[in-house]
Every structure is written in C-alpha cells, then in structure tokens.
C-alpha cells in the first residue's frame, strides 16, 4: 500500500492511534474484507481500542480482500508487512471472508497451515462471532482462537504472551485460559474437553461505541453505538441470537452520554444491536438525537415494536427507508421459525411506516426454511401482493409513492441453533421456488425484488457447518481464484450430502464448544419447530436454555 494512499486514509479518520513500538507486543488486527466494510464493523473497532488501551501492546489495522496486492497487505498505521508483527489477529464476521485468510497469509509469505509455521513466523489468532458458531472450517490455519466477547479476557490475554518466548511456550502459557482454543492441541468434536464461550453478564459498566470515524466507511461519518447485545425473541434460525445469549441492554443514562460524545465527532448516530426496538426508552433516545440535529440509523427493528413518537423522530432525523423482517411469507412458517409476528401486525406496521413519512420499505424474507411447502411459497406471493396493496393505499394519502424492495434470501442452517440439524434445500429446488416467486412478484407495481444466489448460499452453508477438512477446500478455492465449483469437484465433496439434514444424535463439528445453553434445549426447540409450536421470549429469571443460572 503506497504511503500516500495510507496517509490519505489516516488524514480522513478521527480516532487513529499511532503508538510507539518499543518493547511492546505488536498485533496486526486483520479484517479480511475491504476497508469500508471493516471500518463499519463495531466489533473490529472495539478490539482495536481494547488492545491499544494496553500499555504493552501496539495494535495496527490491516484490510485484505480479493483485490489486495502484496504491496497493499500492510498496516494502515505504519505501513509494516504482516511478518513484522508478533501476532496476527483475524477479526471474522462472515464465512465468505474465510478465503481472504489464505490470501493474507500467501501475500505475506506466512505458512498457511499452523503445523507448518516456523519459529520466526507470527502467532496467528482469530475471533469474532463466526468463530463462536464454528471455528473448525478454518482451524488448520489458526494457531489459537479466542472464543467469546472481547471485553471478558482479550486485553488480559496479552499478559500471558511474551515475544521473546517460542511459539510453543506462548501456547503453553494460554492453553489453560477459558475461551482459548488451540486446534493443534484439541481433537475438536470428539474431544471431551469443552471450550467455554466467554461473555460479560452485564454491559452497563462499559460502552461499546465507534473508536474511529471516517467518510470512507460503508456507514460514512457515523458514530456507532451498541445499545443491546443478544436478543430475547429466540428466532430458531438466528446464530447471533443464540451465541450472544443472554440478552443484555444498556441504560438510558449510558446511551444518552454516548449520543452526547457522538454528536461531537460525527454527523450521524447508528444504534446497533439485534434488539434495538426492545429498548423501553427508544423514544427518548431518538428525541435526544433529533435535539442534537444529527441523522439517525438503525441496525434492525421489529415490526411489532414501535410507537408513533419513535417513528416521528426517526423521520425527522432523516431516515427515508425502513427495513422490517417478517422472515417468512406464510403465517405457518413464522410459527416454525418462532418469529412471533402475525400478518395483521406486519401490515399494520407497513401502514404506520408510510403514514409516518417513510418513502421506501424493505421486506426481508427467506425461502428454503424447514418444513416449507409449495403452499408456503404461494402464500409468500400473496403476502407480497397484500403488502403492496397496503403500501400504495397508505402512500396515496401522502401524495407520494415510493418503492417496496423484497429481499429474498436462502435459508442457511447455522451451528448452535435449533436448526443446526436441518439441511439446506438442493439448489435446483431453491431455483424453482425463486423462479415462481420472481414470475409473480416482479409484475407487482412499485415492487422490486433482490434475490440471493442459491449456489452461493450452498457454499456458505458448507463453510458454516463444515469440519476441519473444509480448510483444504478453502485453500484450493483460493488457488483456483474463487472457483468453488471446481474446488469441490477436485476434492470430490458430495456437497448436497454435506449440507443435508442431520440426526439429533449425530456428533457435530462444533459440539466441543460450551455455549452456555443445553444441547437438549436446542433439540426441544427443533422438535417444537417441526410441530409448528412457538416458544415464549427470554424472561428475567428464566432457566430454560441454561445460559442464565439464577439462584
């Protein structure tokens, strides 16, 4: 990466940390995707801040995607190559980034496989929500994983690492720590030793907000504020909803102070969290943002949790498009996934949004969900038609008609969820369903359709639910310049079998992870889904799943 280009990035950033390297542990925090994406990732920014808060650590950022050349595989802060650092820390959030791990190591001439690394090569670690779910597909590339939320142990971890010591000695020092997974010293699913996921019981004692702000991020000039962690609603497909249990919320005073700080640094505030709309004081937070004359953005919200006051402030702060996620087009499937929304409530939400002044609405739907039938697909088409009818009728009152975007996504089974035993539907079946929906929905006025690729979804399912052998597939796909079809053929992988349904008694690659909730609980939720039965939300004092161990 040319020095001038790096300087241009830094000059546009607020919050860049430039630390002296003398007698410090040097960490390259690698985000395996584009700069714009990584700089909009609050988890990545949090790790950057936490490590640089340690006096004996210097942490610099590296961004690597498919377009990165050797000259660009250097740190933003000092322009150093990865081989200059003691530790490479990969921050992982989506399975599609796995291939960029290989790219970063190859560009830096670092051994791709941990068992081939020499004494003079950096230690390679990884963390992030994807590793909580299933680290096995990339385990052969990684010396050790940090399984858990960064605030628990990550800064203290570096008290156990000593650059002057050998790789093996450093791994000896950290092996007994909770949340540390060393694949070369662990047999994975067949090993009786559990690797415990670490989480902080309460998030009211610290803030999680943007450390750096730049106009070049996907969320440009935006101050990100995590308002909640986890989600109480228990949607059975949602990996994040399960691995971030229990649901935790910050206080009004805490978040008001974060808004105050953000107003000094950025033009926009973005509330982040899987359950933003569950905040009982969301109206007051939105009012605070409006009073600061700032724009507002949300990561998500539920159609059944809104108020007229909240909507009014959201519109006043500049939001023109709102996304709602019914997930399924039929009432029956919404019960299967435990969405907890009825069609009348969703339609009422659409009407409310339009009347409040939102011009455009995005609807998130999935196909290929467990137990889905062609009746459900037909219901999905009718659902889209009904939503359009409500949308147009309400828009006419405002004398302005925008657009509805239907985002149609393929269901992908996720580890550590009740649907971890569910297979993904074959590509040809998904294509037929997509063709049917497209044929009918694209005729609806004021509606556009965005469709996820079934083949890409199948690759993602393979990466999501795979074992250690998938690492060799990832490397081959890299060598073939991303040609996954050819890589699968070379490895003779029966992909539809690998992503197909599993028995509840099967040993799964990620079973060695101690997530806090009982496997039996997931099995019960799976059976309730098959029976079309719903479950209640998480409640204070609840001990059903096992994460919360109240006396």
Map the helices and strands.
Blueprint lengths: L2 H9 L13 E7 L3 H4 L3 H11 L4 E7 L23 E5 L6 H10 L15 E5 L1 H5 L10 E3 L3 H8 L9 H8 L5 E2 L13 E2 L25 E5 L1 E2 L9 H5 L4 E2 L2 H12 L4 E5 L9 H10 L3 E4 L9 H9 L4 E7 L3 H6 L6 H14 L3 E8 L6 H25 L5 E7 L16 H15 L5 E5 L2 H11 L5 H10 L4 H7 L4 H4 L14 E2 L4 H12 L21
Parallel strand pairs: 1-2, 1-3, 3-4, 4-5, 7-17, 8-11, 11-12, 13-14, 14-15, 15-16
Antiparallel strand pairs: 5-6, 9-10
CATH secondary-structure class of the domain at 3-196: Alpha Beta
SS-derived structural category: alpha/beta
Low-confidence stretches: none
Distance separating the two termini? 55 Å
The largest sheet has its strands arranged as: 2-1-3-4-5-6
Q: Return Rg in Å.
A: 24 Å
Number of helices: 20
Shape: globular
Largest sheet: 6 strands, mixed
Could you explain how this protein is built, in words?
With 551 residues, the chain is an alpha/beta fold. It has a domain at 3-196: Rossmann fold (3-Layer(aba) Sandwich). Helix content is 35%, strand content 14%. It contains 20 helices and 17 strands. It has helices spanning 3-11, 35-38, 42-52, 98-107, 129-133, 150-157, 167-174, 239-243, 252-263, 282-291, 308-316, 331-336, 343-356, 374-398, 427-441, 454-464, 470-479, 484-490, 495-498, 519-530, and strands at residues 25-31, 57-63, 87-91, 123-127, 144-146, 180-181, 195-196, 222-226, 228-229, 248-249, 268-272, 295-298, 321-327, 360-367, 404-410, 447-451, 513-514. The strands form five sheets. The chain has a six-stranded mixed β-sheet. The chain has a four-stranded parallel β-sheet with strand order 13-14-15-16, with helices on one face. Helix 5 (129-133) links the parallel strand 4 (123-127) and strand 5 (144-146). Helix 4 (98-107) packs across helix 17 (470-479), helix 9 packs parallel to helix 10 and helix 17 (470-479) packs across helix 18. The longest helix is centred in the C-terminal third of the chain and has 25 residues, at 374-398. It is globular and about 70 Å long. The N and C termini lie far apart (55 Å).
